[in-house]
Write a structure and sequence with these properties.
five-stranded parallel β-sheet, three-stranded antiparallel β-sheet, 13 strands
Length: 1002
């Protein structure tokens, strides 16, 4: 048995379905259902392939039957994997086996329940009747419906029909034994109309009629059967029926009904009504089903947990009603009110409530909690009862309420994780979070009307997003709209967009609002944890770590971890990774409201900005010690950095924070922390230079430039405009890059910033190189060298010399490239700047490649690749891999070349570099073309062209059309080939001739 099978159930007593943790498996077609259905009927046993062929096609299978069977099996496996069921369907000579316990197939559970009922039929007929009703409740229609079985599969369907009919006979036998002859006398004629010669049904009908005082009717039933059997088959009724007929004639006392039993206690039926318009939650319902189906002895404790307002109770009640037939001895319900410490129900009082539900008189309820728990377990022993405890506050509240006996189920809802409960009992946890967008819109539509939602689809989608997928918020919003049938959805959505969104999610006359529910969730928090919750609400990004929580409240790191762990255990924040957490949108807004109310004019914003300045400054000093223009002043330094003094650790931390960087800088500027905003932008340069994500860098630099301009600090503005120009250049927005650098150069000249002028001239030259304006590029590089030398900027000089060499390579003139490149290499090694060293080695390799020396080129590329990996520079690593692959391609080693291009493609996508992605796809297309795989070549070249449309570059696109022309020539379509060659020529002319790759930015 695999780990996955504990979460899967296959149903064949109706349409064939498989349910996994992610919902039902997507089975396609009758034959897939047929294969899965018969394998489920023989779960754990190998069915030979020829037997499966027989069940699909009968006596006349096609020649391709086995191959088609293998295809169906492969698709079934895919469907099972997609629904979370795992690798259940195994190949096992000479066929296949469904590796699933029999009790996870409804047909086998049905047979087990019927067998258990038959054991009770004589001694405990009332229990047998309840068991049989539960068993028959598993049927959902015709067995194996939709499977289209033939051959021996048809006999399996007949067998299941016979099993069901026998169970129905057992049920009415048990009912008559229990004194239910009146109901049997009414129901059995309907069954006999379908099966008029079935002797057991006739015998039961005769006995029921006799016990109802209808002796003559009972004898007439026997007479009709005897006549039918004689006319149709020429036989008489069997011995048992004949003996019953004689006993009725003699009115023997043995046929009299048993003495009336004492009036049975009223079975508890305490489940609340299902919530109206229940929507979605297929995966969660399937997970609950699977947890029960997987139990081999005692049923596990099921815990439904999640944030406030997410519909935990609705889900639990909905599922409980679905499985009510499996628990015929009753259903108990109790709201423990654990979210409210002042009103929470103690285990002592809860036991009293449950005992009353089990019909224990008040004066028989023991006084002590241990005695109450013992009586509770004794009363439930040997029964099948469902106990639903809503709103549990802690594992201690629940531990005494776990029922004994293997047939009872405890279902708990809680806002807390209940980890301690798993230490004592088998526990399965189902986490309930926000609804997906489609489900959220569907819930709105089910309440306010689908036609209304369809008319304003955009507004409905916006409203669902404003509610954050929280079912409580969605239901409240929908209830308000139901009360205002002509109000446009867009108008209501606009109301919720304002500052009072949470107050807007309330319905007059209903105390259960989003605000009151979230306030209740916060009530049990310790004061320190509540303060961390409030202050974290001010964080503008999507995720955060415990170090930030500690810094915002002046706590030691361990204190921050404990507080955030407590918030996660209470589902007020959600874990999204190692030491990473997030707020649900409405919960985060609620935290911000609490902070404004509880700490007006507090220092949370200052502490947040200071923490980011301190940690980003520390990361920058590890990544690029030479970038030292800024030394931030921090009033609230963190007690401990969230990463060790290691480059890779710093990169990993900033990568985890990446989604926060733009929002934090933007918010710092909005709060008036203008110096911090531009300094953060500057200090993050080394991170983005190493990892790419240049589009984000554009947004960051725009914020930094606006902050610097707002300060009236021209030196800071020069730095920010220069950085923005680089970001524009790296995203191929070259016109904007030139304009931005021109503004930066004007400011730098006005304030006499000579080193700044050198860097700006270098960046302008890089842009001209990309535009293939080589004369202007070389002139700008010479100006850059002059300014950097005048300022004594050794690293700037090395960088410019490297880019000058790169321009010569782009021109296709490798010889004059070597002198500036070798000088740049010596300078950056002397200064200890590995990133520029790696970029220079890469360009030296390209120059060697142009000279026709791929072996020497690979020596440079290998060293450059090692350095880029040492410093964690993913963007540069991707660029070097493209050049390394090109060298292998020159040597005719297609396999190594394609492997390099594949890795480069993966990196380009990882760092969000669309230009690099198109280049990698183009190289892959070229590589497959040279290797003779025309199909793969076409696929990659077409993909490269599609990506290139989003980052235009005439020169790179010209190469693509050149290769597409060669591809179509080799495919035998000269017209298409000539069309691509013509496009390539026009693009090359527009791009000022040929060349490859691109320069490195500072």
């Amino acid at each position: 048995m695999t780990a996955s099978d504990e979460r899967c159930e296959v149903r064949v007593l109706g349409p064939v379905t498989a349910l996994g943790p992610a919902g039902p498996a997507a089975l396609s077609g009758a034959r897939q259902r047929a294969v899965l259905g018969v394998l489920a009927l023989h779960a754990g046993a190998v069915l030979p392939g020829n037997r499966l062929v027989d069940v699909l096609w009968g006596e006349d299978p096609p020649r391709t039957a086995l191959r088609t069977l293998h295809s169906h099996v492969a698709r079934i496996r895919q469907a099972l994997t997609a629904c979370g069921a795992g690798p259940l369907l195994r190949t096992s000579d000479p066929g296949y086996v469904l590796d699933l316990p029999a009790d996870q197939v409804d047909a086998h559970r049905f047979a087990d329940l019927v067998a258990a009922a038959r054991r009770d039929l004589t001694g405990a007929p009332d229990r047998a009747a309840r068991t049989l009703r539960s068993a028959l409740g598993l049927w959902r229609g015709e067995p194996l419906a939709g499977a289209g079985l033939v051959g021996w599969g048809e006999r399996e369907v007949e067998r299941l029909h016979e099993l069901r009919l026998s169970a129905v006979e057992d049920l009415w036998d048990a009912e008559i034994r229990s004194g239910g002859h009146g109901a049997a006398a009414l129901e059995l004629p309907r069954l006999l109309a379908e099966h008029p010669t079935r002797e057991r049904l006739v015998r039961l009908h005769m006995l029921a009629l006799y016990r109802c005082g209808r002796h003559t009717d009972a004898l007439e039933v026997y007479g009709r059967l005897r006549q039918d059997l004689a006319e149709e088959f020429g036989v008489d009724p069997g011995r048992e029926l004949a003996e019953l007929h004689t006993a009725i004639l003699r009115r023997e006392p043995v046929l009299d009904p048993p003495p009336a039993a004492p009036a049975p206690a009223v079975l508890p039926r305490q489940l609340p009504a299902r919530v109206g318009h229940f929507t979605g939650r297929a995966a969660e319902l399937a997970a609950l089903d699977a947890a029960v189906a997987a139990a081999t002895d005692d049923l596990p404790v099921l815990v439904v947990t999640g944030p406030a307002g997410m519909g935990k109770t609705s889900l639990a009640v909905q599922w409980a009603h679905r499985v009510i037939g499996r628990f015929p001895d009753g259903q108990l319900f109790l709201d423990l009110r654990g979210h409210d410490p002042e009103r929470a129900v103690s285990a002592h009082d809860a036991l009293a409530h449950l005992l009353r539900g089990l019909d224990v008189p008040e004066d028989r309820i023991p006084g002590g909690p241990d005695e109450r728990a013992a009586l509770y377990r004794s009363l439930l022993h040997g029964k099948r009862c469902l106990v639903l405890l809503d709103n549990a506050g802690s594992a201690e509240d629940v531990a005494r309420l776990v029922p004994g006996g293997e047939g009872n189920l405890l279902l708990v809802t809680s806002r807390r994780v209940m980890s301690a409960l798993a230490a004592r009992h088998a526990t399965r946890v189902v986490v309930v979070d926000a609804l997906g967008h489609e489900e959220a819109v569907a819930l709105l539509g089910s309440v306010v009307g689908d036609d209304r939602v369809e008319r304003e689809a955009g507004a409905a989608a916006g409203l669902a997003r404003l509610c954050g997928g929280m079912p409580l918020a969605l239901r409240i919003a929908a209830a308000r709209l139901v009360g205002q049938p002509v109000r446009p959805l867009a108008e209501f959505a606009a109301e919720l967009t304002g500052a009072d969104r949470i107050d807007g999610l309330a319905v007059e006359g209903d105390s259960r609002t989003v605000r009151t529910v979230l306030a209740g969730a916060c009530a049990p928090l310790a004061e320190g944890t509540a303060r961390v919750f409030d202050r974290l609400g001010l964080h503008p990004g999507p995720t955060f770590g415990p170090h930030l929580g500690a810094a915002l409240c002046g706590l030691p790191p361990d204190g921050g971890r404990r507080a955030v762990a407590e918030l996660a255990a209470s589902h007020l924040v959600s874990a999204v990774g190692a030491d990473r957490y997030r707020f649900h949108d409405l919960i985060g807004e609620f935290a911000r409201r609490r902070l404004r109310a509880r700490e007006p004019g507090g220092d949370t914003a200052d502490r947040l900005v200071d923490w980011y300045l301190a940690v980003v400054d520390a990361a920058n000093r590890l990544l690029d010690p030479a970038r030292g223009l800024v030394t931030p002043s921090v009033a609230h330094p963190p007690a401990e950095l969230p990463f060790p003094a290691d480059q890779q650790a710093a990169l990993a931390f900033l990568e985890a924070e990446r989604g926060n960087l733009v929002p934090v800088v933007r918010q710092a500027r909005a709060w008036g922390h203008l110096t911090a905003a531009w300094q953060l932008t500057y200090l993050l340069t080394s991170f983005y230079a190493s990892t790419g994500h240049w589009q984000e860098r554009v947004e960051l630099c725009r914020e930094g430039a606006a902050a610097a301009a707002g300060l009236g600090d021209p030196a800071a503005e020069v730095e920010m405009l220069r950085a923005l120009g680089v970001a524009y250049s790296m995203t191929r927005r070259l016109r904007e890059a030139l304009e931005t650098n021109e503004r930066a150069l004007e400011l730098a000249r006005a304030i006499g910033d000579v080193p700044g002028q050198g860097h700006i001239h270098n960046n302008v030259a890089n842009i001209h190189t990309k535009l293939r304006r080589f004369d202007e590029a070389v002139a700008a590089y010479h100006l850059a060298v002059e300014r950097c030398a005048a300022a004594g900027d050794g690293l700037g000089t090395a960088l410019v010399l490297r880019n000058l060499g790169n321009a010569h390579v782009r021109m296709g003139r490798p010889e004059p490239a070597f002198a500036p490149l070798e000088e740049a290499l010596a300078r950056c090694r002397e200064l200890g700047h590995p990133r520029v060293e790696a970029g220079t080695l890469d360009t030296l390799g390209e120059a060697c490649l142009l000279l026709g020396d791929p072996d020497r080129a690979l020596t440079h590329f290998d060293r450059a690749l090692a350095i880029s990996r040492d410093i964690g520079d993913r963007w540069l690593e991707g660029e070097i891999l493209l050049d390394t692959g090109a060298a292998h391609l020159d040597r005719g080693d297609h396999g190594r070349a394609l492997a390099c291009f594949d890795r480069a493609l993966a990196i380009s996508r990882e760092v969000g570099d669309r230009h690099g992605e198109s280049c990698a796809l183009a190289h892959l297309g070229r590589g497959h073309l040279l290797a003779g795989d025309l199909a793969a070549a076409g696929e990659h070249l077409d993909a490269a062209l599609a990506v290139r449309a989003r980052v235009p570059d005439d020169h790179e696109e010209a190469h693509l059309h050149r290769d597409l022309g060669e591809l179509w020539e080799r495919r035998g379509d000269p017209v298409a080939a000539e069309r691509h060659r013509g496009t390539s020529a026009r693009l090359r002319a527009r791009a000022n001739a040929a060349g490859e790759a691109g320069p490195t930015e500072p």
